[in-house]
């Protein structure tokens, strides 16, 4: 996809994240111009210690200048400090919040900014 606008999230519920133009995922990676399923098995991610640098590199490579990281619906997913440090080194503004709040923030930013997100739709 050559469009550099970040796709909107059109629906979020337990186990389902619906993304404009892409359908639905359980967990999602979104960036300016696209999205795909976020498969934790690719990087060995787990709730603890949490989101790793390898999980966010793709978002930065696709031009995200701001990144929203979700902690899940109940806040169970952690984010490694090394991930936050790496994003800071890249000059990427990062926000971390529970899923429903994160989706609202992401959609607001997606209207006008190159934003990326990791959306965890459960716990």
Q: Keywords, please?
A:
five-stranded mixed beta sheet; 3 helices
Brief digest:
The chain contains 3 helices and 8 strands. It is of the alpha/beta class and about 120 residues long.
Q: How many helices?
A: 3
Strand content: 25-35%
The total count of strands amounts to: 8
Question: Residue ranges: pLDDT <50 for 5 or more in a row?
Answer: none
Radius of gyration computed on alpha carbons: 13 Å
Shape by Cα distribution: globular
Q: Can you give the mean pLDDT?
A: 96
Following the backbone from N to C, one meets helices and strands in this order, namely EEEEEHEHEHE
Write structural notes for this entry.
With 123 residues, the chain is an alpha/beta fold. It contains three helices and eight strands. The strands form two sheets. Strands 5-4-8-6-7 form a five-stranded mixed beta sheet, with helices on both faces. A three-stranded antiparallel beta sheet has the order 1-2-3, with helices on one face. Helix 1 packs parallel to helix 2. The chain is globular and about 30 Å long. The protein starts with 8 loop residues before the first strand and ends with a strand.
């Amino acid at each position: 996809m050559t469009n550099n606008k970040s796709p909107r999230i059109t629906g979020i519920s337990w186990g389902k994240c619906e993304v404009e133009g892409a359908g639905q995922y359980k967990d999602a990676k979104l960036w300016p111009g696209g999205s795909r399923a976020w498969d934790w098995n690719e990087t060995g991610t787990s709730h603890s210690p949490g989101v790793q640098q390898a999980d966010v590199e793709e978002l930065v490579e696709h031009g995200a200048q701001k990144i929203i990281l979700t902690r899940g619906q109940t806040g169970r997913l952690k984010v490694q400090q090394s991930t936050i440090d790496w994003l800071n080194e890249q000059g990427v503004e990062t926000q971390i919040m529970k899923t429903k709040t994160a989706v609202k923030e992401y959609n607001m930013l997606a209207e006008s900014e190159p934003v990326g997100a990791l959306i965890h739709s459960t716990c």
